[in-house]
Design a protein that fits this description.
Blueprint (H helix, E strand, L loop, with lengths): L15 E2 L2 H4 L3 H8 L3 E4 L10 E11 L27 E6 L3 E7 L8 E11 L1 H7 L4 H6 L2 H4 L2 H7 L4 H4 L11 E5 L7 E4 L13 E4 L13 E2 L1
Antiparallel strand pairs: 1-7, 2-3, 2-7, 3-6, 3-9, 4-5, 5-6, 8-9, 8-10
This protein binds a DNA duplex through strand 4, strand 5 and helix 6.
DNA sequence: ATATCGATTATCT
DNA sequence: GATAATCGATATG
């Protein structure tokens, strides 16, 4: 008879919001360090919605006006104004007539720069994610990559839209969508060129956790600390 | 496993 | 009018 001394590890412990200063830096630094952090969607309890939490496993850095692949290269327009605002806010855009994608603003007011979220590892609220993605429980558990691997997929799994989330403060746990950290241990990071762009394609600005199955696209590029 | 292609609309030229 | 920080389906090895 084994003693019931050890509870099973919870998927995630206490989650602390990331401070604004975390985002007030070069997007390359933010991208590298945000791997292993958590994206949280607070459930709408009145609609029987569960909280959704995923661990960030793949991101890309966009460097602002000087980066030809960045939306900020078009200047401060109605669409891109969040990128030019203060750090730590959600920039959500609509692409290919079908999908939303989530960024967090970096740098400082007046200086654009952001990190695009490309893949998460689902931890809590998997059934809500599956529902949002129009997948059965079986399909979601059988291949979690269909849930949150890819920027469009993770946005859909977390119910992220421009109308709902663009401009919201991702450093406040009062927000419906926010970023936090638990005590996740540092893991090996890999770097590769960014995906889906046609300009500045050679720059290694895609960062992902080595060996993580939720990473979208190629998983075998250059090693990095 | 990789390759190609259509969907569908906000934004910019 | 063209393009896009994508996805899912289909075809093929």
């Amino acid at each position: 008879m084994t003693p019931v001394s050890a509870r099973p590890d919870p998927a995630v412990g206490n989650i602390r919001p990331l401070p604004r200063a975390f985002f007030a830096r070069d997007p390359r630094r933010v991208a590298r360090e945000i791997l292993g952090k958590l994206l949280v969607r607070e459930g709408d309890v009145r609609q029987g919605d569960m909280h959704r939490v995923g661990r960030v496993v793949e991101v890309e850095a966009y460097l602002g006006e000087k980066d030809p692949a960045a939306h900020a290269a078009a200047g401060n327009t109605e669409r891109t104004r969040v990128l030019f605002g203060p750090p730590g806010y959600a920039y959500v855009y609509f692409i290919y007539g079908n999908h939303y994608c989530l960024n967090v603003s970096c740098e400082r007011e007046g200086k654009a720069g952001s990190v695009l979220f490309r893949a998460l590892e689902p931890l809590l609220g998997i059934e809500s994610m599956a529902h949002a993605r129009k997948l059965s429980r079986i399909e979601a558990l059988g291949d979690p990559r269909r849930l949150t691997s890819g920027p469009g997929r993770l946005a859909e799994a977390f119910g992220i839209t421009r109308a709902r989330d663009n401009g919201s403060d991702l450093t406040s746990s009062q927000s419906s969508l926010w970023l936090g950290e638990d005590n996740f241990a540092d893991a090996a990071v890999r770097v590769s060129p960014r995906i889906g762009i046609t300009k500045a394609t050679a720059n290694p600005l895609r960062y992902f956790l080595a060996g993580n199955r939720l990473v979208s696209g190629p998983r075998l590029r250059s090693s990095s600390g």
